Amino acid sequence: MTADDHIVFIVDDDERIREALGELLDSHGMHAIAFESACDYVRAHKPDVPACLVLDIELPDINGLDLQRQIADRDHPPIVFITGHGDIPSSVRAIKHGAVDFLTKPFSDADLMAAIHAAIAQDREKRAERAEIDVLRQHYLDLTPREREVLPLVVSGLLNKQAAAELGISEVTLQIHRRNVMQKMAAASLADLVRIAERLEIPITHSRRVGGN
Protein backbone atom coordinates (compact mmCIF):
# COMPACT_ATOMS: atom_id res chain seq x y z
CA MET A 1 0.00 0.00 0.00
CA THR A 2 1.41 3.37 -1.02
CA ALA A 3 0.52 6.79 0.35
CA ASP A 4 -1.22 7.87 -2.86
CA ASP A 5 -3.56 4.90 -3.36
CA HIS A 6 -5.63 5.39 -0.20
CA ILE A 7 -6.57 7.92 2.46
CA VAL A 8 -7.52 7.76 6.13
CA PHE A 9 -9.90 10.44 7.42
CA ILE A 10 -9.61 11.21 11.13
CA VAL A 11 -12.45 13.03 12.89
CA ASP A 12 -11.67 13.82 16.54
CA ASP A 13 -12.04 17.06 18.49
CA ASP A 14 -8.93 16.35 20.57
CA GLU A 15 -5.93 17.90 18.82
CA ARG A 16 -3.53 15.60 20.66
CA ILE A 17 -5.38 12.55 19.38
CA ARG A 18 -5.43 13.91 15.83
CA GLU A 19 -1.69 14.56 15.93
CA ALA A 20 -0.90 11.19 17.48
CA LEU A 21 -3.00 9.31 14.95
CA GLY A 22 -1.50 11.30 12.10
CA GLU A 23 2.02 10.48 13.26
CA LEU A 24 1.13 6.80 13.69
CA LEU A 25 -0.29 6.54 10.20
CA ASP A 26 2.63 8.47 8.72
CA SER A 27 5.03 6.01 10.36
CA HIS A 28 3.19 3.24 8.52
CA GLY A 29 3.40 5.05 5.21
CA MET A 30 -0.29 5.91 5.17
CA HIS A 31 -1.83 9.20 4.07
CA ALA A 32 -4.24 10.85 6.51
CA ILE A 33 -6.32 14.01 6.76
CA ALA A 34 -7.66 15.09 10.16
CA PHE A 35 -10.76 17.10 11.07
CA GLU A 36 -11.92 18.42 14.44
CA SER A 37 -15.64 18.19 13.69
CA ALA A 38 -18.13 16.18 11.67
CA CYS A 39 -19.15 19.31 9.79
CA ASP A 40 -15.58 19.92 8.60
CA TYR A 41 -15.35 16.31 7.42
CA VAL A 42 -18.67 16.38 5.56
CA ARG A 43 -17.80 19.63 3.78
CA ALA A 44 -14.29 18.57 2.77
CA HIS A 45 -13.35 17.41 -0.72
CA LYS A 46 -12.60 13.71 -0.63
CA PRO A 47 -10.23 12.09 -3.12
CA ASP A 48 -11.73 9.22 -5.08
CA VAL A 49 -9.51 6.50 -3.60
CA PRO A 50 -10.04 3.64 -1.14
CA ALA A 51 -10.46 5.13 2.31
CA CYS A 52 -11.25 4.64 5.98
CA LEU A 53 -12.98 6.99 8.41
CA VAL A 54 -11.59 6.93 11.96
CA LEU A 55 -14.45 8.55 13.84
CA ASP A 56 -14.72 9.68 17.44
CA ILE A 57 -18.06 9.16 19.16
CA GLU A 58 -18.19 12.42 21.12
CA LEU A 59 -17.77 15.39 18.77
CA PRO A 60 -18.56 19.08 19.37
CA ASP A 61 -21.27 19.29 16.70
CA ILE A 62 -22.78 15.82 16.39
CA ASN A 63 -22.51 12.36 17.88
CA GLY A 64 -20.39 10.05 15.74
CA LEU A 65 -23.14 7.44 15.69
CA ASP A 66 -25.58 10.03 14.38
CA LEU A 67 -23.11 10.95 11.64
CA GLN A 68 -22.88 7.28 10.71
CA ARG A 69 -26.66 7.19 10.37
CA GLN A 70 -26.79 10.40 8.32
CA ILE A 71 -24.28 9.23 5.74
CA ALA A 72 -25.54 5.64 5.59
CA ASP A 73 -27.26 6.16 2.23
CA ARG A 74 -24.21 7.73 0.62
CA ASP A 75 -20.99 6.26 -0.67
CA HIS A 76 -18.76 6.68 2.35
CA PRO A 77 -15.64 4.96 3.69
CA PRO A 78 -15.96 2.11 6.17
CA ILE A 79 -15.88 3.47 9.71
CA VAL A 80 -13.60 2.62 12.61
CA PHE A 81 -15.03 4.17 15.78
CA ILE A 82 -12.79 5.36 18.59
CA THR A 83 -14.09 6.61 21.93
CA GLY A 84 -13.09 7.31 25.49
CA HIS A 85 -16.59 6.51 26.71
CA GLY A 86 -17.44 3.18 25.17
CA ASP A 87 -20.50 1.20 26.15
CA ILE A 88 -22.06 -1.96 24.85
CA PRO A 89 -25.22 -0.41 23.32
CA SER A 90 -23.13 2.09 21.34
CA SER A 91 -20.73 -0.56 20.09
CA VAL A 92 -23.59 -2.85 19.09
CA ARG A 93 -25.32 -0.01 17.24
CA ALA A 94 -22.10 0.95 15.44
CA ILE A 95 -21.27 -2.58 14.29
CA LYS A 96 -24.89 -3.32 13.38
CA HIS A 97 -24.84 -0.35 11.02
CA GLY A 98 -21.65 -1.44 9.30
CA ALA A 99 -18.71 -0.16 11.34
CA VAL A 100 -15.56 -2.21 10.92
CA ASP A 101 -14.55 -1.87 14.59
CA PHE A 102 -15.32 -0.02 17.80
CA LEU A 103 -12.20 0.76 19.83
CA THR A 104 -12.19 2.19 23.34
CA LYS A 105 -9.35 4.54 24.34
CA PRO A 106 -6.68 3.71 25.20
CA PHE A 107 -6.37 1.17 22.38
CA SER A 108 -3.22 -0.38 21.01
CA ASP A 109 -1.59 0.85 17.82
CA ALA A 110 -1.75 -2.69 16.50
CA ASP A 111 -5.52 -2.94 17.00
CA LEU A 112 -6.12 0.40 15.33
CA MET A 113 -3.87 -0.38 12.36
CA ALA A 114 -5.50 -3.77 11.91
CA ALA A 115 -8.93 -2.14 11.85
CA ILE A 116 -7.80 0.56 9.40
CA HIS A 117 -6.24 -1.97 7.03
CA ALA A 118 -9.41 -4.06 7.16
CA ALA A 119 -11.54 -0.98 6.43
CA ILE A 120 -9.44 0.08 3.45
CA ALA A 121 -9.44 -3.46 2.06
CA GLN A 122 -13.23 -3.53 2.42
CA ASP A 123 -13.58 -0.19 0.63
CA ARG A 124 -11.22 -1.32 -2.13
CA GLU A 125 -13.35 -4.42 -2.69
CA LYS A 126 -16.60 -2.42 -2.74
CA ARG A 127 -15.13 0.03 -5.23
CA ALA A 128 -14.05 -2.80 -7.51
CA GLU A 129 -17.55 -4.28 -7.32
CA ARG A 130 -19.14 -0.91 -8.11
CA ALA A 131 -16.80 -0.50 -11.08
CA GLU A 132 -17.84 -3.91 -12.42
CA ILE A 133 -21.52 -3.02 -12.01
CA ASP A 134 -20.93 0.27 -13.85
CA VAL A 135 -19.45 -1.67 -16.78
CA LEU A 136 -22.39 -4.06 -16.82
CA ARG A 137 -24.84 -1.15 -16.72
CA GLN A 138 -23.09 0.45 -19.70
CA HIS A 139 -23.35 -2.84 -21.59
CA TYR A 140 -27.05 -2.93 -20.77
CA LEU A 141 -27.50 0.63 -22.03
CA ASP A 142 -25.88 -0.43 -25.30
CA LEU A 143 -28.72 -2.89 -25.92
CA THR A 144 -31.51 -1.87 -28.27
CA PRO A 145 -35.03 -1.59 -26.81
CA ARG A 146 -35.93 -4.95 -28.36
CA GLU A 147 -32.80 -6.59 -26.96
CA ARG A 148 -33.77 -5.32 -23.50
CA GLU A 149 -37.10 -7.11 -23.95
CA VAL A 150 -35.35 -10.30 -25.03
CA LEU A 151 -32.88 -10.41 -22.13
CA PRO A 152 -35.33 -11.12 -19.27
CA LEU A 153 -37.15 -13.72 -21.37
CA VAL A 154 -33.91 -15.53 -22.11
CA VAL A 155 -32.67 -15.57 -18.52
CA SER A 156 -36.09 -16.70 -17.28
CA GLY A 157 -35.45 -20.00 -19.05
CA LEU A 158 -38.00 -19.71 -21.86
CA LEU A 159 -37.27 -21.63 -25.03
CA ASN A 160 -36.52 -19.56 -28.12
CA LYS A 161 -39.92 -20.32 -29.61
CA GLN A 162 -41.65 -19.36 -26.36
CA ALA A 163 -39.75 -16.08 -26.08
CA ALA A 164 -40.42 -15.34 -29.75
CA ALA A 165 -44.14 -15.96 -29.28
CA GLU A 166 -44.13 -13.70 -26.22
CA LEU A 167 -42.74 -10.84 -28.32
CA GLY A 168 -44.66 -11.66 -31.48
CA ILE A 169 -41.54 -12.18 -33.58
CA SER A 170 -40.10 -15.14 -35.48
CA GLU A 171 -37.82 -17.63 -33.77
CA VAL A 172 -35.01 -16.74 -36.19
CA THR A 173 -35.30 -13.06 -35.25
CA LEU A 174 -35.36 -13.98 -31.58
CA GLN A 175 -32.15 -15.99 -32.02
CA ILE A 176 -30.46 -12.99 -33.64
CA HIS A 177 -31.47 -10.73 -30.77
CA ARG A 178 -30.37 -13.35 -28.27
CA ARG A 179 -26.94 -13.62 -29.89
CA ASN A 180 -26.60 -9.83 -29.86
CA VAL A 181 -27.55 -9.72 -26.18
CA MET A 182 -24.93 -12.33 -25.31
CA GLN A 183 -22.24 -10.44 -27.22
CA LYS A 184 -23.09 -6.95 -25.94
CA MET A 185 -23.37 -8.13 -22.34
CA ALA A 186 -20.06 -10.01 -22.72
CA ALA A 187 -21.70 -13.16 -21.38
CA ALA A 188 -19.75 -16.36 -21.96
CA SER A 189 -22.78 -18.60 -21.41
CA LEU A 190 -26.44 -18.51 -20.51
CA ALA A 191 -25.55 -19.12 -16.87
CA ASP A 192 -23.19 -16.13 -17.06
CA LEU A 193 -25.99 -14.00 -18.52
CA VAL A 194 -28.29 -15.08 -15.68
CA ARG A 195 -25.69 -13.96 -13.12
CA ILE A 196 -25.30 -10.63 -14.91
CA ALA A 197 -29.06 -10.07 -14.93
CA GLU A 198 -29.19 -10.83 -11.21
CA ARG A 199 -26.39 -8.35 -10.47
CA LEU A 200 -28.23 -5.69 -12.47
CA GLU A 201 -31.48 -6.61 -10.69
CA ILE A 202 -33.30 -6.97 -13.98
CA PRO A 203 -36.90 -8.04 -13.20
CA ILE A 204 -37.75 -11.57 -14.37
CA THR A 205 -41.44 -11.79 -15.20
CA HIS A 206 -41.59 -15.47 -16.13
CA SER A 207 -41.40 -18.33 -13.64
CA ARG A 208 -39.54 -20.86 -15.73
CA ARG A 209 -35.89 -20.84 -14.66
CA VAL A 210 -32.76 -22.09 -16.34
CA GLY A 211 -32.65 -25.85 -15.93
CA GLY A 212 -36.39 -26.07 -15.25
CA ASN A 213 -38.76 -28.55 -16.88
Automatic annotation (TrEMBL):
GO MF, one example: DNA binding
Span of domain HTH luxR-type: 136-201
Any one GO BP annotation for this protein: regulation of DNA-templated transcription
Sorted UniProt keywords: DNA-binding, Phosphoprotein, Transcription, Transcription regulation, Two-component regulatory system
Domain Response regulatory: 7-120
InterPro entries to which the protein is assigned, alphabetical: CheY-like_superfamily, Sig_transdc_resp-reg_C-effctor, Sig_transdc_resp-reg_receiver, Tscrpt_reg_LuxR_C, WH-like_DNA-bd_sf
Pfam families in the record: GerE, Response_reg
Modified residues (4-aspartylphosphate): 56
Annotated Gene3D superfamilies: 3.40.50.2300, Winged helix-like DNA-binding domain superfamily/Winged helix DNA-binding domain
Stored PANTHER family: DNA-BINDING TRANSCRIPTIONAL ACTIVATOR DEVR_DOSR
Protein name, UniProt field: FixJ family two-component response regulator
Record organism: Rhizobium esperanzae
Lineage: Bacteria, Pseudomonadati, Pseudomonadota, Alphaproteobacteria, Hyphomicrobiales
